[in-house]
């Protein structure tokens, strides 16, 4: 599928619909923001998590998501068939403006490993993913690791591919800011307050901070882009 067509398919999604929760908050200023030194260790798995998950979720963790980021394996392509995977991060934030002001940070340490799973049949994928010819998906859940025990955000990361082997080999640390194709943020009314497009930079907008540089996983603006006032 042509990249422009795939963007239209994504735009036709409910801009905030997510059927599952998201991660923790641990600033990491390294080049690969998703890298974690203990990323392949499973010694920290909480096997009692199911027993702890029966509490009702706060309102901000349900319904429409507040922020979305689309990653591609490589950019500057014309057709999705030129990449092996696409990843979408859907974020529920207690205060998305705070994430703009203070920066949005996470690493592989934010992944709740015991909650990950696969969707292996294409018929069970969202309509946009089927239209983009993806055939399977891997889902991760992330959560902010706030020191006071009150997470500021949760998220789910959905990785789409055509081959199971691609999903099996995928690691969250493969993601980086320079692989971000699109990004969006919404206010509580579902109105767009932030939009970034790698392929159409003239469409980049921020209704809150204009061209003030943003930190962490916000792809635009950055100090390195010379936009700081």
What would you say this structure looks like, in words?
This protein has one domain. The chain is an alpha+beta fold and 229 residues long. The protein has an eight-stranded antiparallel sheet. The chain has helices spanning 3-11, 49-52, 96-102, 127-131, 164-169; strands at 67-72, 85-93, 117-119, 136-143, 153-161, 180-186, 192-197, 205-206.
Please supply descriptive tags for the structure shown above:
alpha+beta; 229 residues; globular; single chain
Quickly count the domains.
Answer: 1
- Give the termini separation: 40 Å
> Number of DSSP strands?
8
The order of strands across the largest sheet is: 3-4-5-2-1-6-7-8
Mean pLDDT, to the nearest integer, reads 84
Tell me roughly what share of residues is in helical segments. 10-25%
Structural class: alpha+beta
What's this, in brief?
The protein is of the alpha+beta class and 229 residues long. It has helices at residues 3-11, 49-52, 96-102, 127-131, 164-169, and strands at 67-72, 85-93, 117-119, 136-143, 153-161, 180-186, 192-197, 205-206.
């Amino acid at each position: 599928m042509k990249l422009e067509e795939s963007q239209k398919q994504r735009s036709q999604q409910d801009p905030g619909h997510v059927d599952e929760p998201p991660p923790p908050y641990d600033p990491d200023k390294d080049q690969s923001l998703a890298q974690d030194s203990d990323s392949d260790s499973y010694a920290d798995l909480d096997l009692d998590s199911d027993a702890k998950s029966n509490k009702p979720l706060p309102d901000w963790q349900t319904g429409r998501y507040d922020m979305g980021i689309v990653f591609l394996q490589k950019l500057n392509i014309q057709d999705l068939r030129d990449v092996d995977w696409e990843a979408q991060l859907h974020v529920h934030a207690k205060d998305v403006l705070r994430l703009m002001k203070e920066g949005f940070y996470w690493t592989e340490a934010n992944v709740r490993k015991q909650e990950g799973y696969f969707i292996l049949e294409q018929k069970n994928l969202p309509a946009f993913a089927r239209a983009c010819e993806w055939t399977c998906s891997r889902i991760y859940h992330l959560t902010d690791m706030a020191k006071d025990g009150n997470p500021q955000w949760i998220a789910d990361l959905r990785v789409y591919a055509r081959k199971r082997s691609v999903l099996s080999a995928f690691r969250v640390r493969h993601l980086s800011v320079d692989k971000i194709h699109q990004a969006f943020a919404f206010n509580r009314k579902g109105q767009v307050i932030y939009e970034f497009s790698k392929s159409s930079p003239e469409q980049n907008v921020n209704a809150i901070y204009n061209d003030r540089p943003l930190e962490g996983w916000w792809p635009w603006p950055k100090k390195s882009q010379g936009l700081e006032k």
